[in-house]
Amino acid sequence: MRAFIVKFMTPKGEEKNCILQAENRGALKTLAEQQGWRILQIREKKSIWKKLHTRTLSGTQLIFWFQQMAVLLSSGIPLVQAWTLLCRDWRKAGEKQCLQRGVFRLEQGISVTEVLEESELFPVMVIPMVRAGEQSGQLAEIFQLLGTYYTYVEKQKQGVLQALLYPAFLCCCALGAAIFAIFFLLPVFENLFSQMNAPVPPLTRGLLQVSHSIRAYGPEILIGLGVLTVAVYGYSQQSQRRQALTMRLWRIPGVRKLLLMFSWQRCCQLLAIQIRSGIPLLTALSEAASAVPISGFRRHIHWLCLRLEGGESFSAALAKSQVHLPYVSAMLAIGEESGQYDRAMQAVADYYRWQLTVAVARFRRFLGPAALLMVGGIIGLLVCCLVLPVLDMITTMSL
């Protein structure tokens, strides 16, 4: 028996996590069907050593894998042979072993979707899209779409990282200036003030006390910061903690709108692909929502699915939900009138992709001046605390 961490949604729309013992994933899915659960994710429980050696593929690796698979399949090469060719020159041993195990599973007749899910090397959102490609016979097209999607995501990440380079450089300069002032500059000025019996302003006195504390408890402070960093990292790696943080951000109006735009962009992109592949709307909506990493949005989409099962139209049900956005409702109404849901969903995905790109560009423009102001404030504080008392002392001596 193997242990699995199962993330599922109950018939009431509640998301839960539990650890179950089963022989394989198929047995877990059978159990879920009996209980009325909708499985969102299944991960095999592994030791810390295995977790370190089997991680999700990076963005560049995903782009390479999906684009090469699309080219090979479009050229008429069988799936198993194409998979074997890509595994042959894979560099990382742990990832290569998982991928080679996938070749063996494919030769046994296991579907590509199950192989990708068992490997745990691919993101959760990949699974419903590949399943749609298998059901429609358009696996090469789906791989090409995934390659294009992750190319876009990687460009966005690179843009954000480039935007953070200049502020990070300024922050490092400010930190270096503060360390130099605390360990080298402030002791010199403190001796000067004590020798001249000059009055020290309260702000300068406070800065000197901070300098004394840092110099006296420097190792303890470093250890505390290290422990805090490890604790924050461990907190961020727990899915339940991340979901709790996301739900807190969900309650903030401005952040909620950005999260809704991100959720609808990903959901509608998947919906357009799945509907174009011939998958029914209700099934496609459920699968697309499972690929969105925000539990609040998934819960509301589950509620929408229940309303659709009751015979209500998509646009009418969405108007009553808490994930309503005007553009989505307008395009849904057009899709219902024309019968072309795929084009309407693609238009929504393109629109919110553009909106998110604009938001990232604004963030990049704001970040540089904000970091410059912060560094200027730190340096200005040091100048005021050190230079002004010296000027007062010189003025007093001249009198």
From TrEMBL:
Record field: transmembrane: 62-86, 164-186, 216-235, 370-391
Subcellular location: Cell membrane
UniProt membrane topology term: Multi-pass membrane protein
A Pfam cross-reference name: T2SSF
Top-level division of the source organism's lineage: Bacteria
Keywords: Cell membrane, Membrane, Transmembrane, Transmembrane helix
Type II secretion system protein GspF domain: residues covered: 65-187, 268-389
InterPro entries in the cross-refs: GspF/PilC, T2SS_GspF_dom, T2SS_GspF_sf
GO cellular component: plasma membrane
Family, per entry: Belongs to the GSP F family.
Name of the protein: Bacterial type II secretion system domain protein F
Organism listed in the record: Megasphaera lornae
